[in-house]
Amino acid sequence: MSWYYIEGILIQSCYTLLIVLGLSILTGYTGMFSFGHAGFVCIGAYVSVLCTMAFGLPYLLALLIAGLVAMLFGAALGRITLGLKGDYFCIATLGVGEAIRLIFNNLNINFNVGGRTFVLDGAKGIASIPLHTTFPVALVIVVVFLTATALLMNSKHGRSMLAVREDELAAQLTGINTFRSKMLAMCMSALYAGIAGGMLAHYFGYLQPKMFMMVKSTEYTIMVIFGGMGSITGSVLGTVLLCALPELLRAVGDWRLVFYGLAVIIIMIVRPKGLMGGKELPVGKILRMIGGLFTKKKDPPSDAADPGKEVSA
Amino acid sequence: MDLQYYLQQLVNGICLGGMYALMSVGYSLVYSIMSFSNFAHGGVIMVGAYVGFFALTALKVPFLVAFLLCGLGSGLLAIIIERLVYSPLRKRRAPSLYFIISAMGASIFLENFVIATIDGTPRNYPTLFSNSIKIGSISLGLDSLLMIVVAAVSLLGLMIIIQKTKIGLAIRACAYNEKAGTLMGINSSLVIFVVFLMGGVLAGFAGMLYGMRFIVKPTIGQVTNKSFVAAVFGGLGSLPGAIIGSLLLGIMEIFVASINSSLRDLFVYALLILVLIIKPSGLMGRFVEDKA
Q1: The CATH number of the domain where A217 resides is what?
Q2: Does the distance separating the beta carbons of A33 and B97 come in below 8 Å?
Q3: What does B78-136 look like in DSSP terms, one character per residue?
Q4: Tally of CA atoms within 13 A in the half-sphere of A250 that contains its CB
Q5: What integer pLDDT is reported at residue B288 of this predicted model?
Q6: Strands A108-113 vs B138-141: parallel, antiparallel or unpaired
Q7: Could you say which of B97, B109, B263 has the minimum Cβ distance to residue A265?
Q8: What is the pLDDT of residues B228-263, one digit of tens each?
Q9: Is A312 a member of any domain?
Q10: CA Rg, chain B, in Å?
Q11: What ipTM, to 2 d.p.?
């Protein structure tokens, strides 16, 4: 195995981890399942490519804009779908995810910025995107967002989300604005997915709407479940394992996705709480301690309760 | 653009809708009892299409035998999935979202199992019915006619089973309230068994008809996403809703496609979102508040 190959897997793990982290906020912590996250990734990818290729903006700024656009879209989507419960929310996200992909599939726009033309031609996709996503860059971005997630989860907002997941009615009764919590989770996860989409586009160097099929959204959700709902280190483990697994199994060719499907079913039957089962690795505890230092400044100390005593799903 | 054109499109739409109906009743039946969206249904349909294909090409059996084999194969597969994948979850009373994830896993498994064992290349069914009949000025292919007839007969059969037989009564009772049904002495395992069997058999029929009209490949299961939309449109968990929703969706999809064919898929998902925003319970469903 050459370093080039390993680096590829690592970069893929990095941006997938970013998506899964975002989804973990929505699914693992707030308890809302999304089968349309590939749609946000798709938006992020296209927006970032537009920024770098059509408008000539720097890579990191493009990522930020991609994330913000995805977040805006997430907020709009949240506005109309967060009232739906359980399966219906799930189905709505499924429909939105597919709809986004199909819109990009049919989109045909010419951009003319400063004399240069940039063609967005639906299903044909975009080729020769500059390859800005290198492993160090990807790693730094992911570490930043890992820390941010840990901080968020230890804040008042993070705990409100957990309360919503455990019992929405009870959370409402204790005075938590559940809609706002859900909205925050939705926006954050869309932001993460958008940025990850930008990283994905600038890693592969080409973009096609069919890279964002529903199967992808399912894979992300499976990673969250596999790692364990409500656990950041679980999400990291789940992502790295499930990203590496298909690559390690590449020797067995077509059978690798068969094993993948089988693994999902077995996990659901044998250990439905996922690898970490809502708990964190010691690494997570260190992160949480750092997070605790930050949140104490804003909240009274009584809020910084023992993070190890989370109620699992 | 005259009346004849519209009538022709209407017939095409009914044809497509009939096929959606065969698929979506499987979704709806399972949802009505177990309250989760069985995404493995697409895999069952796909396997049905392959069973039919190999029965016709390798075994060279007559059409009717192949058709029944399809139903049998898919029905068996649906039951096996229920026993191996859902039953352990059911015993543990897992939340419905775990069922959905498992169903997705099963669907990934089935799709890739077929790719690994057979291969991924699309195959064409042998042409069995190339003739078409003309009713007035509308031409109707024999395969389309067959599709409509099969859909009508099997859906009618299903309705009779649900409405007139004892097991049908049990299914209706469990759909209303499974716990209360079990207290009344209904064997809910048997009900679930029958529901998966019936859904599977119809899925097999649908798979073969779909394969005959279009193509057989491991990913045709994804077509069932649309039949799922039809089930939501008609009202998840409602059988007549699923049938009416499917027919309407098929007709609307064909008319949208006749205006701009690249918009047909987008239209279907846009409709799904609209339905969920305006009336999540669909045309005929009952919207049960999720008790978190």
Answers
A1: 1.10.3470
A2: yes
A3: HHHHIIIIIHHHHHHT--HHHHHHHHHHHHHHHHHHHHHHT-S--BPPPP----EEEET
A4: 7
A5: 54
A6: unpaired
A7: B109
A8: 889 888 888 888 888 999 999 999 999 998 888 888
A9: no
A10: 19
A11: 0.83
What are the chain B neighbours of A99 within 8 Å (beta carbons)?
A: 266, 269-270, 273
Contact call for B101 and A222, based on CB within 8 A: yes
Q: Would you say B253 and B229 are in contact if contact means Cβ atoms under 8 Å apart?
A: no
CA A59 to chain centroid: 20
SS3 B243: helix
Between B100, B108, B222, which is nearest A261 by CB? B108
With CA atoms as reference, the chain A residue closest to B101 would be A222
Residue A12 domain-assigned (yes or no): no
Q: Token pair for residue A67?
A: 């994330």
Using an 8 Å CB-CB cutoff, list residues of chain A that contact chain B: 33, 80-81, 84-88, 90-92, 94-96, 98-99, 102-103, 105-106, 167-169, 214-215, 218, 221-222, 225, 253-255, 257-258, 260-265, 268-269, 272, 313
The domain total for chain A is 1
Residue A37 and residue A193 in contact, taking contact as beta carbons nearer than 8 Å: yes
Q: Is A2 domain-assigned? A: no
Q: Kindly state the tokens that stand for A82.
A: 């967060």
C-alpha–C-alpha distance, residues B112 and A98, integer Å: 21
- A214 vs B291, more confident: A214
> What is the per-residue pLDDT across A205-257, written as a single tens digit (0 to 9) for each?
888 888 888 888 888 888 888 888 888 888 888 888 888 877 777 777 678 78
Sequence-ordered list of residues with C-beta below 8 angstroms from that of A155, at least 6 positions apart, any chain = A291, A295, A298, A299
Structure tokens of B274?
């609209």
The Cα B178–Cα B191 span in angstroms is 10
Would you put residue A213 in left (φ > 0), alpha (ψ -120 to 50) or beta?
Answer: beta
Question: What domain range includes position A136?
Answer: 18-111+127-295
Question: The pTM is what?
Answer: 0.83
- Position B283, amino acid: L
Question: Which is nearest to A26 in space by CA: A204, A169, A220?
Answer: A220
Q: How far is the C-alpha of A67 from the C-alpha of A47, rounded, in Å? A: 9
If we measure between CA atoms, which residue out of B192, B273, B213, B224 comes closest to residue B111?
A: B224
pLDDT at position B198: 93
Q: How wide is the angle at C-alpha A212 spanned by C-alphas B49 and A133, nearest 5°?
A: 145
Q: How do the domains of chain B map onto residue ranges?
A: 10-120+138-219
Q: Is residue A62 part of a domain?
A: yes
Task: Name the strand (E) or helix (H) holding A76.
Answer: helix A59-81
The DSSP annotation for A19-68 comes to: HHHHHIIIIIIT----S-HHHHHHHHHHHHHIIIIIS---HHHHHHHHHH
